[in-house]
Amino acid sequence: MRRPRVMGIVNVTPDSFSDGGQLETAAAAIAHGLRLVQQGADILDVGGESTRPGAQPVAETEELDRVVPVIAGLRARWDGPISIDTLKPAVARAAVEAGATMWNDVSALGAYADSPAVAVELGCDVVLMHMQGEPRTMQTDPRYGDVVTEVRDALVHRAEVAMAAGLARERIWLDPGIGFGKTLAHNLALTANLAALIETGFPVLFGASRKRMVEAIDVSATDPLDRLGGSLALALEAARQGAAIIRVHDVRETVQALKVQAAVSAAARPAP
């Protein structure tokens, strides 16, 4: 099996659910990103607005002040792919000007009317993530009839909207949005049936690192830092089904787990 690329998370926010407030300066965030690269990250994902359940919106100017110096600083020291995690077209534009090569949008280019057009203008890769509702209320009472089918169809529709605006198909990535307007049962169904999304032909990004679904399964994992084992299990399952990018906090451990998984897979005997 082909090992997916690992996307390391660089949160420049005071209120992210796992690591909020840890990177209070651009210099600290840049240093953290470079450490993740040393640990094996293939891509860095820089975000300046928390989208955890209940999160409050951040002003555009404040988000720009948080992320642009970090992206510019990383680009000056590293030539690998950098993603901007934002809802806002203006932030995506400034981030790309500073050196970002991917736009990771939790609203699947749906938060602003001009998002698809800006994505076309920028010409970068775009991650379309599924979210039911919006961060402040998405976990209040999420409901689906068939979560796997509905998430797949919703993401394919957003991809069609983006392509109709002029975005090249090969620039589009899909993300099922684990934990974004989903219960534990929804998250498990999406993970167990990730192949349904992969079968659309779009490359898939999977992100469940340190998320609350691990605590829902193991009630002792109340601290996000205690969710490494569960995060690795989810990452390995996503990789087994064909995810192309795994988005994580714990880069070194995830890279190691994926390398071992790939080695075991390569050693398997062919079926008779």
Report, as a whole number of angstroms, the end-to-end distance.
Answer: 19 Å
Write down the secondary-structure element order.
EHEHEHEHEHEHHEHHEH
The largest sheet is: 8 strands, parallel
Shape: globular
Residue stretches low in confidence (pLDDT < 50, at least 5 long) are: 15-21
Structural class of the helix and strand makeup? alpha/beta
Q: Strand share of the residues?
A: 5-15%
How many strands appear in the DSSP assignment? 8
Mean pLDDT across the residues is: 93
Strand order of the largest sheet: 6-5-4-3-2-1-8-7
Helix content: 40-55%
Radius of gyration from CA coordinates:
18 Å
Number of H- or I-type helical stretches: 10
Primary descriptors:
single chain; 272 residues; 43% helix
Word description of this protein:
With 272 residues, the chain is an alpha/beta fold. Helix content is 43%, strand content 13%. It is built from ten helices and eight strands. It has helices at 26-38, 60-77, 89-98, 115-122, 147-165, 184-192, 195-198, 212-217, 228-241, 251-266, and strands spanning 5-11, 43-47, 82-85, 102-105, 125-129, 172-175, 205-206, 245-248. The chain has an eight-stranded parallel β-sheet with strand order 6-5-4-3-2-1-8-7. Helix 1 crosses helix 2 and helix 9 crosses helix 10. It is globular.
